[in-house]
From TrEMBL:
Its main location: membrane. Signal peptide: none annotated. It is a multi-pass membrane protein. This is NitT/TauT family transport system permease protein.
C-alpha cells in the first residue's frame, strides 16, 4: 500500500504596508564624509602634525627638533626664494634619466629571459649577483669611472631600478595563462609582436608594481647619493640641500628638505601611478 504525503492547505497572507520608509534614505552627512578615504587620511595627517608640534614644544630645543610651524615657515621661505624648487627640478631631472633607462633595460632583459633559455639563465644569474647589492655601495666606483657629475648618479639609479623591475616583470610574464599564450601562437605571433601584444598587457599589474618598487628604490638612492655627492660638489638636488643645511645647523630647513622628499613621493604615488592603474588594470578588471 502506497502512503500519500499529507496535503498542506494553501493560503495567502497579506503583508501590512510599510510606513515612513524610504528606499534610498541618505546617510548622515558625518557618515558620508567619514567614508571618504582622503578625509580620513587628512585627519590622520593632522593628528600627526599636532603630535609633532607638541613634541617640539615639549623638547624646547629648535636645534634638535624644530616644530611643524617653524618648519613650515622655512619651507615657505625657501619656496618663495626659488631655492627649493630649483633643487627639486635638479633631483627629478636626474631621477627621470636613470629611471627611464633602468626600466627599459629591465624590460628588455625580461623579454629576453621569457623568450630564450640563455636569457633566463642570464637574468637569474645577474639578479642573484646584483639585486642584493645596495646601489649606494656602487657610488665610489661610479665617481671613479664617471667623475663628479650627473653621470655617476644616473649610473647608481639604473642599478637601483633595473633589478627589482626585471624580477617583477619576469614574474608577471611567467604568470600569463597558457590560454593567452596559445591564442597568441594561433594568430602567428612571435618575438617582439608576441611580447608586445600578449605578454605585456597580461602582465601589466606586475609591471606597474615593478615600476612603483623601482621608483621607491630610485628616489631613496638618489637622495642618499646626493648627500654623498654633495660633500664633494657645490651643486646638487634635495640631498645636497639637506646636507648643506645640516652643516650650517639650520635644522628647520633640514626638515623642510625631508618634507619635500615626502611630498614628492606622495604626489608621484597618488597622481602618476594611481592614474596609470585606473586607466589600465583597474579599468580592464585586472585589479580591484
Amino acid at each position: 500500500m502506497r502512503i500519500q504525503p499529507p496535503l498542506r492547505p494553501e493560503y495567502q497572507r497579506e503583508l501590512a504596508p510599510l510606513k515612513d520608509f524610504t528606499l534610498n534614505q541618505p546617510l548622515p552627512l558625518a557618515a558620508r564624509l567619514w567614508n571618504q578615504t582622503w578625509l580620513r587620511k587628512l585627519v590622520l595627517l593632522a593628528g600627526l602634525l599636532v603630535l609633532w608640534e607638541f613634541a617640539a614644544r615639549w623638547q624646547n630645543n629648535d636645534l634638535m627638533l624644530p616644530g611643524f610651524l617653524q618648519t613650515f615657515q622655512a619651507f615657505r621661505d625657501d619656496i618663495a626664494s626659488g631655492e627649493l624648487p630649483h633643487k627639486m627640478v635638479v633631483s627629478l631631472g636626474t631621477l627621470l634619466k636613470g629611471y627611464v633607462i633602468g626600466s627599459l633595460l629591465a624590460l628588455a632583459l625580461s623579454a629576453l629571459a621569457v623568450s630564450t633559455r640563455f636569457g633566463r639563465d642570464l637574468l637569474g644569474t645577474l639578479t642573484s649577483m646584483f639585486n642584493p647589492l645596495p646601489a649606494i655601495a656602487l657610488l665610489p666606483l661610479a665617481l671613479l669611472w664617471f667623475g663628479l657629475g650627473e653621470k655617476s648618479l644616473v649610473f647608481v639609479l639604473i642599478h637601483s631600478v633595473m633589478w627589482p623591475m626585471a624580477l617583477n616583470t619576469y614574474s608577471g610574464f611567467l604568470g600569463v595563462s597558457e590560454t593567452l599564450r596559445m591564442a597568441g601562437r594561433n594568430y602567428g605571433l612571435s618575438g617582439f609582436r608576441y611580447i608586445n601584444a600578449i605578454l605585456i598587457p597580461a602582465a601589466l599589474p606586475s609591471i606597474i608594481s615593478g615600476l612603483k618598487i623601482g621608483w621607491a628604490f630610485a628616489w631613496r638612492t638618489l637622495i642618499a647619493a646626493e648627500l654623498v655627492f654633495g660633500a664633494s660638489s657645490g651643486d646638487g638636488g634635495l640631498g645636497w640641500y639637506i646636507f648643506q643645511n645640516r652643516n650650517e645647523l639650520y635644522t628647520d630647513r633640514v626638515f623642510a628638505g625631508l618634507a619635500s622628499v615626502i611630498i614628492i613621493g606622495l604626489l608621484v604615488e597618488g597622481l602618476v601611478f594611481s592614474t596609470l592603474e585606473k586607466v589600465t588594470v583597474k579599468r580592464w578588471g585586472m585589479q580591484r
